[in-house]
Amino acid sequence: MVEDDPSAEADGPSAIRSIALSPEDAVDAYVYGRENPGEAVLRVTPPFHGRMRARIHVYHVDDAELTGAVHLSPATVIADDVLAAYPDLESALAEADDDPAADDRLRDRHADAVAEWRTRARDAIADSITLETDDGTHRVDLKTLG
Predict the structure, then answer these.
(1) Are 110 and 118 in contact (CB under 8 A)?
(2) Inter-residue contact 80 to 129 (CB < 8 Å)
(3) Calpha distance 70→132 (Å, rounded)
(4) Spatial contact of 82 and 120, defined as CB atoms under 8 Å apart
(5) Which of 55, 69, 99, 107 qualifies as a FRET site for 135, CA 20 to 30 Å off?
(6) Is the pLDDT of residue 7 over 50?
(7) Which pairs with CB-CB distance under 8 Å and at least 24 residues apart come from 4-13?
(8) Where are the domains of the chain?
(9) What is the pTM for the complete model shown?
């Protein structure tokens, strides 16, 4: 199959030319993974074709191999410098003394910092991503919605 040929038969992820995603979904998936057990990804489900839509998907057991879905890690669609700037609550809490009022202030500041980070991250979605397929690596464009 020729991946740039729109008439090529769509039989796997290598048929995908572009993936549309919500920047909010990407940011929510990343934050979920940092703040909760389980994992959140951007999921693309078969049947595959040239233009696909990724939606947020939360799981405790990865079923991609069973369903044939492609899971995009939110860390691969948000710019690295923005990921590195994610506010770290655990370090701040570890450095704080045992004062409950200080703990509450740190949590409030963390919530504000995450809200600011979310705004920055929504504007830092990559233009393309590389998928790993049975046929090797495959580069696709990312298109933001909204």
Answers:
(1) no
(2) no
(3) 9
(4) yes
(5) 55
(6) no
(7) 6/50, 10/47, 10/48, 10/49, 10/50, 11/48, 12/48, 12/133, 12/134, 12/135, 13/44, 13/48, 13/70, 13/131, 13/133, 13/138
(8) 1-78+125-140, 80-124
(9) 0.84
